[in-house]
Each structure stands twice: as structure tokens, then as C-alpha cells.
Amino acid sequence: MTVVRLATRSSAQATAQAQAVADALMAAHPGVAVELVFVETLGDQRTDVPLHSIGGQGVFVKEVQRAVLDGHADLAVHSAKDLPSVTADGLQLAAFCARRDARDALVGRALADLPEGATVATGSVRRRAQLQAVRPDLSFVELRGNIHTRLSKLPEGGSLVMAVAAMEILGITDRIAQALPVPEFVPAPGQGCVAIECREGDDATAALLAAVDHAPTRAAVEAERAFLAELGTGCSLPVAAHAVDGVLHGFLADPASGRHVADTVAVGADGRTVAAALARDLRDRLGAG
What is the structure's pLDDT at 53? Predict the structure, then answer.
């Protein structure tokens, strides 16, 4: 029996995602057993401050990656939207699992039902920028913590924003008041996808992961990550990209002025090149405004 150690955060969402990966690997490879290795990240430790103030992207992944690099685990499982656009030295992105619903959702009240000046809770500068573009009257408060902690912080008469995929994996989609439509509300790059890393050169583990790598999701998420890489930023800037049904939706905003630009392009055969070109175009248009 081959034992594969899988590093993950210990939150309910991360554990559920990791267990789904473990179950899929064991189903595909009957001679493999998977053990979960739980890791606490900086993002888990610092729930008292906004994500963008402690480093944005990467705060939920670095310690999980370190467990693999140090030999304490063989795989690292992440929400793909948490991964920086450049893969860490010594690791390879070996699998992108089939994506769940990538949209954002409002819990509490649907957008049209929010009264004038209502409060929306979210720690995402992207989500704030997109909601303000449609409803400039809304007020916003920070939202951190695990899923159930966040759900307990629903503003009176208002809403909070969650990822549909996170609620799906926990079986709590009944709490959703409205799934926000794309392209009006473009998700974060990689949202809804679980990505798996292993050590660079670990061909045996990479071969195991081929069974859970979903080619359409990989192509889409790689395009979205190329969009983000071209901008050279993480969640400290309102950035969004989502590839679906042969098109790429992109969004970029200036948090100081509140201006935003968005566009949709056909992905074509080379999604990463198209995505990088769209990112440059949006950056130029935003800068020229």
C-alpha cells in the first residue's frame, strides 16, 4: 500500500476540499492510501486584519507549500484563487480539479432587495468594487474568519458575500439569497477550483494526480492566472478574471478613484496569451482614464 500525505489548512472548507481530493485519488488508485496533514497558515492566524494588509495572495498557501518542500507531505491542496500567479520554486502545479460554481453569492438579501445605504460585509476589494459599480449607495464592512464565523456576522438588513463553491462543498447553498451573474460580477482568478501542487521532479506523484486533473478547468484557470500574472498583483487591487464557454471576462478597478474597466474576449487556442493581452489592455484603459 502506497501512502500519500496531503497537506491542507484545517478549516472546514479546506478539509472538505482535501478529503474530496483524497477520496478521488483512492478511487482512481486502489493501492493508494491518503493521509491529511493539517497546517496553520498566516491567514488563519491573523483574522483580526484585512487580507490585503498582511500580504494578500499567498497568506493561505505558503505554510502548506512549505510542508511539501520540507518533506512533511507529498501534496499541497489549495483553493486555486489563493495561489499567487507565479508557482513557488521547487513545486509544480500538477492538477486542477473540475471547477465548482465559480460565482459569488449574496447571503442575506438579494441585490435588488437591499435598501438604500444597506451594509454589505466582505473583505474583498474586488467584490466591493464590483458591487459599488452597480450600487454606489452601499456601505461595506470587513469580513474575516472561517465560513461559519462569517455567516454569523450578517449585517442587520444587509448581506454578506461568499463564494458559491465554498458553500457547495459544505452543503449550505440554502443560505444563498442570490448568485451574482457573470460578467457583471466577475469572479477571482481560479475561484471555484481546487489546485494541487507536488514537488518539482516528483514524477510518481504527478502521475497519480493526472487522474484528478481536469483539462477544461486547467485551460480556464491557466488563462485566468496569466491575466493576473500580467498585472503583477494580488488581491490588494480589485482584479477579476473568469474563463468559461470559450470566452474570458476581465475586470480591473482603481480603488482610489473608484473607476473600473471590464471586457470580454474570445479565448482561442492560446488562452494565456489572450489573457495577458486583455490584462494589458485593461491596465492601459484604466490608466488613461
Answer: 47
Find the catalytic residue in 74, 82, 101, 104.
Answer: 82
Give burial (CB, 10 Å; 0-12/13-18/19+) of 160: buried
Q: What is the pLDDT of residues 97-110, one digit of tens each?
A: 999 999 999 999 99
Beta strands 247-253; 239-244: pairing state? antiparallel
Residue 152, judged by CB atoms within 10 A of its CB (0-12, 13-18, 19+), counts as exposed
Judge whether 101 counts as a catalytic residue.
no
Alpha helices, DSSP H, located in the chain = 12-28, 42-45, 62-69, 125-134, 147-151, 164-169, 203-209, 215-231, 271-288
The strand pairing partners of 106, in sequence order, are 161, 178
Q: Do residues 101 and 179 lie in contact, with contact meaning Cβ atoms separated by under 8 Å?
A: yes
Q: Which CATH class for the 104-179 domain?
A: alpha beta
Q: How many whole angstroms separate alpha carbon 53 and alpha carbon 201?
A: 34
Q: In what order do the strands lie in the sheet with 239-244?
A: 239-244, 247-253, 260-266
SS3 29: coil
Q: What is the pLDDT of residue 257?
A: 85
Model-level pTM?
0.91
Of 186, 179, 181, 180, which is closest to residue 265 (Cα–Cα)?
A: 186
Give the CA distances from residue 86 to residues 92, 93, 189, 207, 208, in Å, rounded to whole numbers and listed in that order: 10, 10, 13, 22, 23
Q: Which of 223-227, 248-252, 254-258 has the lowest mean pLDDT?
A: 254-258
Which residue in the block uniquely carries the three cell numbers 496553520? 40
- Give the contacts of 230 (CB within 8 A, at least 6 positions apart): 275, 276, 279, 280, 283
Query: Which residues touch 78 (CB under 8 Å, ≥6 apart)?
Result: 60, 61, 64, 194, 195, 196, 197
Q: Give the residue, 201 or 55, on which the prediction is more confident.
A: 201
